Structure formats: structure tokens, C-alpha cells
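Allow me, if you will, to draw on your knowledge of protein folds for a short while. The matter concerns a single protein, recorded as an amino acid sequence and a row of C-alpha cells. Kindly check, if you would, that the fold set down in the C-alpha cells agrees with what the sequence suggests. You will find the record immediately after this paragraph.
***
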Amino acid sequence: MGVVWRAFDLELGRVVALKQSQAGDSGQIRREARIGAGPHHPNVVTVFDVVIDDGVRWLIMEYLPSRSLSAIIETDGRLPSIEAARIGVQLANALAAMHERGMVHRDVKPSNVLVAEDGTAKLTDFVIARWAKVIESGGGRIGGTPGYLAPEVADGREAQAAATCFRSAPPCSTR
């Protein structure tokens, strides 16, 4: 998780989100940027660029005035069924768009879902997302958040599209 600021892109004249990444290396932040730049979907936060300046890694992303789903649940309590279903459909659409392009998010949870005032939900935070064909299986470190892992991922097996879909339901019903 990194710190995110609202910023203004002087070159393009637009408001952006600027995330200082905690990525361990420049390759990791570049992977996150490539995956976040790929889907071009209304329910996925778009990554515009990655900048490494004096060893500090930054992601330049679409700015979305919003609250995280975790903040909404913490403040307002459990979502009404219709609201949870509406957000769930948007997450399913976002994941389908990612999967069609060979991407697996691997960490769908309430804090990685942003909800705008108009109800638009967007998936964000691609730190442990991977291209499906390069995901390693077994014996490696498990990426993800306990409580949101699909059973096969918790057992150390490959995270496929179905595993990410498994994770998309709990964020809508947490608490």
C-alpha cells in the first residue's frame, strides 16, 4: 500500500492521483503500471504513467473523487442488498475486462474498491496483480489478503480468473 495524493498534471492540464509506491523494486512498480494501464474499462482505475525520481517510485493514475468500499462499510455499516449487488456487478465487469486481457488482480478487497458519489465502483491497486501466464504455482509466497483468498490460492496453487472472481463477492458483504 502506498500513499496517494491528488495532484495536477501540468503537461496535460488534468487532475490526477499520484501514488508513492512501496514496491520493492522498479520492476514491480512497472508491472503494476502496465497492468493498471491495460484494461481501459469504466470500472478499473487507469494508470497513466510511472515515474522513478531519485529512487522514489510514483504511479500517475486517474483521479476519482471517492471513498474506498472499506471506508463506506466502516462508516455506514453493511450495504443494502441492492447496493452490494450493484457494486458486485461493476466488480464482475472490471474483472471480466482484466481476464479477457490475461490479467489476474489477486487482491480484490474492500480497500481496493473505490466508490464515487454517483455510485461508480472502480477496482484499484494492482501491486500483486499478474499476467495470468506468468503466475507461479506452489512453493512460493502467497500474495493476497487472508480472508479474501480463494481456497486454491490459500493452498498455494495458481491464482486463475476464477480465484479473483471468488474474491469479488466478500468485499460487497463485509461486516
